[in-house]
Amino acid sequence: RVVYVNGRYLPYAQAGVHVEDRGLQFADAIYEVCEVRAGALVDRTRHMERLERSLAELGIRQPMSRAALSIVLSETVRRNRVKTGLVYLQITRGAAPRDFPFPRSGVSPTVICLARSLDGAVREARASAGIAVATMPDTRWARCDIKTVMLLPAVLAKEDAGKAGAQEAWFVDRDGFVTEGASSNAWIVDRDGTLITRALGHELLPGVTRRTLLDLLSREKIPLIERPFRVEEAIAAREAFVTSAFGLVMPVVRINGVAIGDGHPGDLTRRLRSNFHQVAELCR
Ligand code: PMP
């Protein structure tokens, strides 16, 4: 395996960053995770758009052009011979002696890119079984729309979910409404077959998989309402699922130990999962 770090492709075991990298000290960094399918990048344009927005929101200088970053992504995928998997890109504000304000000048962002193969069969088996979700209070900050590496609340939530026998956590805001998953967007299907997912805002990440699924919904004329929903409404829903570049459209069959619908992945969820890549962009 090789890893891209600041212009070089290094052996996995030898790659590293400076001890005073601001990504390590302050989580002063953003990232993207993009699906790799048949060796190609899925929805690269949308991932690049979100990455550029995250950088701009934090005032981190874009280290290279979108075209150059795209080459880093595909070259990392190619050198690791990934056909089915993920590519991870992280950009930090750079390395400088520890001090809270942005470093003055002459500090360049750190760029890291890793690619990893995934067992597609394992993921499909997981999708056929569906996953369990546990809900937790949303303890994150007020700008969850920026994809920062400040992921400790998600780490703790996933750990707690695991202890409760669940594979994903759903964050719940102070008013009892689901914001999103720890690493996914949350969806339900109501009794009429209408899809419900929270509208975008500062409380949740604008998922690329979410966005592409919206295209599929309008193409297939499936009714959608973008609004918050409560845990109780989700538990009473006909179907539930989460979306992410990692899990794609992943059926949810239990919430806090209660079966959703008949306790199996819903028909609409399964259809959306199998048709998802018809609308996604594929870049070689
Ligand atoms: N919300 C959060 C908090 C996430 O970490 C992720 C995955 N990165 C998502 C939603 C899903 O986003 P995407 O579809 O772009 O993977």
From TrEMBL:
In terms of CDD domains, this protein maps to: D-AAT_like
Q: Does the keyword Transmembrane apply?
A: no
**What InterPro entries does the annotation carry?**
Aminotrans_IV (IPR001544), Aminotransferase-like (IPR036038), BCAT-like_C (IPR043132), BCAT-like_N (IPR043131), Class-IV_PLP-Dep_Aminotrnsfr (IPR050571)
Q: Which residues lie in coiled coils?
A: none
Task: Print the keywords alphabetically.
Answer: Amino-acid biosynthesis, Aminotransferase, Branched-chain amino acid biosynthesis, Pyridoxal phosphate, Transferase
Q: Which cofactor does it need?
A: pyridoxal 5'-phosphate
User: What family does this belong to?
Assistant: Belongs to the class-IV pyridoxal-phosphate-dependent aminotransferase family.
- Write down the PANTHER family for this protein, in alphabetical order: AMINO-ACID AMINOTRANSFERASE (PTHR42743), AMINODEOXYCHORISMATE LYASE (PTHR42743:SF11)
Q: What does this protein do?
A: Acts on leucine, isoleucine and valine.
Query: Any idea what this protein is called?
Result: Probable branched-chain-amino-acid aminotransferase
